[in-house]
Every structure is written in C-alpha cells, then in structure tokens.
Design brief:
By secondary structure, the chain is an alpha/beta fold. The chain contains five helices and twelve strands. Strands 2-1-3-4-12-11-10-7 form an eight-stranded mixed sheet, covered by helices on one side. Strands 5-9 form a two-stranded antiparallel sheet. Strands 6-8 form a two-stranded antiparallel sheet. The longest helix has 18 residues. The radius of gyration is 17 Å and the shape is globular. The chain starts with a strand and ends with a helix.
Length: about 290
C-alpha cells in the first residue's frame, strides 16, 4: 500500500478551494484495490499550516512516510515558502512522486519555486509561456481573469481530450472504443503548462481544445523517473479533480460567478473516464 498526501496551498477557508472540496477524489482513491483485493492507497488530505512560515509537513516531506504528493496550488502566489519547496524537492529527489496542478492567470504561481516540475507551469506574471502568441485572453466571459485562461467549457460540463504522441500509460482505457481516455471535466479558464525544453524526461501527453477559439492547449505533462527524481505530472487545472467539477451539486465558493453546466450529470461516461485517468495516474506514480 502506498501513502498519498492530498495537499492544498491555502488554510482551511470554508469559502475557498480548501481540501474538503476534494472529498470525492479522496473517496475514490481509497476505493481502489490491488489485484489481491487489498486497498492500494492510504490517503491523507490536509490544508497547509498558516502562511507566513514553513508548513510543518511540506517543509519536511522527505522525512515522512508518504510516497506520493498530489499538490493543489489554489493560492494567489504565496502558498509555498522556500522551505516548503526545498522539502518537496528533497522528497522527489529521494524518489517521491508528484502531481502538481494549479489554475488560471497567477493562481498557484507559488509553484514557480519548485525545482524541475515548477518550470512546466506558466502564469501571467511568472514563467510566461514561451510562445508569445499565447499571451492573449481565451476565456472572454469572465472579464476579470486574464491569460492564461483556456476555456474548455463550463464547470459541470466535460471536454473531449486527445493524447499527444504515443499514448502514455496514464491515458490507457480498455473500456473506451479508442483504447484511451476521451473525457475530463471542463473548466472556463484553465492554466498553461508545457514540457521544459531542457528536461528530456518530460513530454506533453494530453491536450484539450478551447471551446471559444478552437485552439489546442496542454492538459498534462508527464515526467519519467530520472536522476532528478521520481515520476511527476503537471496538470493545467485542479478543477479536473475537484468535487464541483465531478458533481455540480457539491457546490462552490461564493466568488465563482460563471453559470454551471450539467454535462457530467447527463453523460456518466465522462466521470467514468475521469476516474480511469485518476486511477491510472495513482498507479503510474506508484511505479506500476
């Protein structure tokens, strides 16, 4: 059994994307079984300690008994300290596995301080996308959010996704007609990621397409185990994993202004595909 830490970069504000809003993900991971029938994962979910000082767990993550960190960067740029990033860096160099995800514009930009995988995440004012033609607004509905903000659809709807290159093990789905996952939850303004040019262990594995501009954008970058550390995945938005985007009835913080959709509710195959992706990811990060 592997130990997975689900971790946000904010304190437990009830009117924000706190760890309680990832309860469906936690429950699903705890349901996954090995071939023997035993639970495959033990899951711990927590918010960070009060900001302004190192987090008591992240800053010493390499000393813990966790094998995987699923980090949801829901902060506005101040969610990780240098000590936190150093602890996470040591954890990965020792073989620990990471899922690191964020959202639009500068949301989660504290990730830029993470060694290796932090370079895969592009924001509005930090580590901008190398292609300057992408420095433009994609979601034109929520006018107070600027680029990167790729519009894959309304919260509560689903998006069609496409593998890039040879399908990565994380994407395989024997129940799909194509043999790979086809759907993930949609979100009105996803962030930007890319494979670092100088990291040969990384590649883009999954793309989506904007519902407004029809422009392709990256959804996931996979990092193989290398001398730099354990396996890792950079994801374009934490909304692929959050309760609200799996089941719109779960609710959202009061600052969410966009009208939701009901595609996930009326097309159950989209949630089945999403859960297959999560299952594959957990086992791949575990080294399987």
């Amino acid at each position: 059994m592997q130990n997975i830490l689900l971790q946000t970069t904010i304190e437990g504000d009830h009117d924000d994307w706190n760890i309680g809003r990832f309860s469906l993900l936690k429950a699903f991971l705890e349901e996954i079984r090995e071939e023997s029938g035993q639970p495959a994962f033990r899951v711990t979910a927590r918010n960070r300690d009060p900001r302004g000082k190192p987090d008591s767990l992240l800053s010493r993550l390499d000393e813990s008994d966790f094998q995987q960190l699923w980090l949801f960067a829901v902060d506005v740029g101040d969610g990780l300290t240098e000590e936190d990033c150093a602890g996470i860096g040591r954890f990965r160099r020792d073989g620990g596995a990471l899922l690191v995800t964020r959202d639009h514009m500068d949301l989660g930009s504290s990730l830029c301080m993470l060694a290796g995988i932090g370079v895969a995440h592009h924001f509005h004012t930090r580590n901008l996308e190398p292609d300057t033609s992408r420095h433009c607004i994609d979601d034109c509905v929520t006018t107070d959010i600027s680029w990167p903000n790729y519009h894959s659809g309304a919260n509560g709807n689903y998006q069609h996704v496409s593998p890039v290159g040879e399908p990565h093990p994380v994407l395989l789905d024997p129940e799909s007609e194509s043999g790979v996952i086809r759907y993930l939850p949609a979100h009105p303004h996803e962030g930007a990621i890319s494979a670092p040019a100088d990291d040969t262990s990384s590649r883009v594995i999954l793309q989506g397409r904007s519902a407004t501009t029809s422009r392709d954008f990256n959804l996931a970058v996979a990092f193989e185990h290398s001398p730099d550390g354990g396996r890792a995945i950079a994801q374009s938005t934490f909304h692929h994993f959050i309760d609200y985007n799996w089941d719109i009835a779960a609710g959202c913080p009061s600052f969410v202004s966009e009208a939701p959709g009901d595609g996930m509710l009326h097309f159950p195959a989209a949630l089945v595909s999403t859960k297959r992706y999560v299952r594959n990811m957990a086992f791949w990060l575990a080294g399987n």
